[in-house]
Amino acid sequence: MTIFKAGADAGNNGLKLWVKNSDPITIPTVYSLYMGETTELMDMDDIPAKDLINNIDVTIDSKAVTFNSQRYVIGEKVLNDNLQAVELEKKSDKSKDEIPVIVTLAGLAIDAMKREYDKDKIEVTYDLSVALPVSTISQANAKANSDRFMGTHEVTFHHPSGRNVKVIIKIDYCKCLPEGAAAAWGVVFDETGKVIERKVEVGETIIKVDFQNKTLLHFDIGAGTTEVVVTEGVKFNPKVSSGLNYGVKQTILEIIKRWNRKYPLKSIDSMAEFNEIYFDSEHARHNLLKNESQTGMLQLAQQISSVIIDKIDDLKDDPYVFIYGGGAAVLKDYLQKILNTKGRTTNVTFLSEPMFVNARGLLVYTCSPRYEQQKEKELGVAANGTKS
């Protein structure tokens, strides 16, 4: 039996899903209940494999959702079809909210369909890792969050042609890690377990360093929270780690409120729609939204930069600092200018593909011997699926 390895980072803004040997995908964390078509669909074709991600129309049956056999439109299609959007609340408890489960199952179904596009029934098995914020994670809710993913779920994808594809997803094992700490796995190792060497500047010299035994300071700037995490290599140090109960979402919602008052005919109706405009340089309203957002983003960057500088000072000895997350993608230019002006850029790295850093770390962890040990310990099942 083939077991696919995956890491799923379901944030306030979007799901970031990375399956081994596949390209990562992102789906806006937003859905709308399917209420039927307003006009008759005539001579419609199947959605091509490359476009599945932007046309998610699925029915989900799962122990992890309250209302089974419910049909959802998810992600980009909600925005493109101008549907009423349901999103995570500002202070949502991601260990209990069903939106992360709904979007993750949809993402895994899309992954499976892209591999076996012509089939009408697909059965697929995953090992999965997920994450919760440092400020809210506990042993109890981490286990509860993992448990709701484990088991068998059915996702039926509805093509506009009328063809339905049933994807039976079995999640063999799931482990829940603290956000930020999960990312450390992708900073230190790759998916094969090989230690990654990164270039750092020491005096006037550039040298290669691995981070297996180094003190690492992580700033994972999300939508709803910001994780301030210290690890020794991949070993999480909870005593000196913390979570801030804000990210970029609160600021973005304030910007949206002011935008909608100023431009009522160009209203922005969700976080997902804001992101679509803000990150698409070719969008007709991109430049205007960037200008309208500048003051709010600068204020948030000043607030977070103070946290970064204070934490570096607390740890002393210039720890290796990594900044990432969806919020880092928004605030990077502001944070870099502030830290540079204050001369606080020693050992500071803004990781590439900041939105996928946690997802990649979760994938690397899923591929690790540590994950296999945990799976065998909890389930009595070895990595190859045999009983121990």
**What's the β-strand tally?**
18
How many DSSP helices? Answer: 10
Approximate strand percentage: 25-35%
Derived structural class: alpha+beta
Question: What number is the mean pLDDT?
Answer: 92
Strand order of the largest sheet: 3-2-1-8-10-9-5-6-4-7
The helical percent reads 25-40%
- Biggest pleated sheet: 10 strands, mixed
CATH homology group of the largest domain = ATPase, nucleotide binding domain
Shape: globular
CATH class descriptor name of the largest domain: Alpha Beta
Separation of the first and last Cα atoms: 16 Å
CATH architecture group name of the largest domain:
2-Layer Sandwich
Spans of at least 5 consecutive residues with low confidence: none
Based on CA atoms alone, the radius of gyration comes out at 21 Å
Q: Secondary-structure element order, as H and E? A: EEEEEEHEHEHEEHEEEEEEHHHEHEHH
How would you portray this structure in words?
There is one protein chain. The chain is globular, with a radius of gyration of 21 Å. A hairpin with a 2-residue loop joins β14 (226-232) and β15 (235-236). The protein folds into two domains: 4-181 and 360-379, ATPase, nucleotide binding domain (Nucleotidyltransferase, domain 5); 197-249 and 269-355, Nucleotidyltransferase, domain 5, CATH 3.30.420. The protein has helices at 76-80, 99-115, 139-149, 181-188, 249-262, 271-279, 286-315, 326-341, 357-366, 369-379, and strands spanning 4-10, 14-19, 25-28, 30-33, 56-61, 70-74, 86-87, 121-132, 151-158, 164-178, 197-202, 205-210, 215-221, 226-232, 235-236, 242-244, 320-324, 348-350. It is α+β, with helices and mostly antiparallel strands and 388 residues long. α4 (181-188) crosses α9 and α7 crosses α8. The mean pLDDT is 92. The strands form three sheets. Strands 3-2-1-8-10-9-5-6-4-7 form a ten-stranded mixed beta sheet. Strands 13, 14, 15, 16, 17 and 18 form a six-stranded mixed beta sheet that branches. Strands 11-12 form a two-stranded antiparallel ribbon.
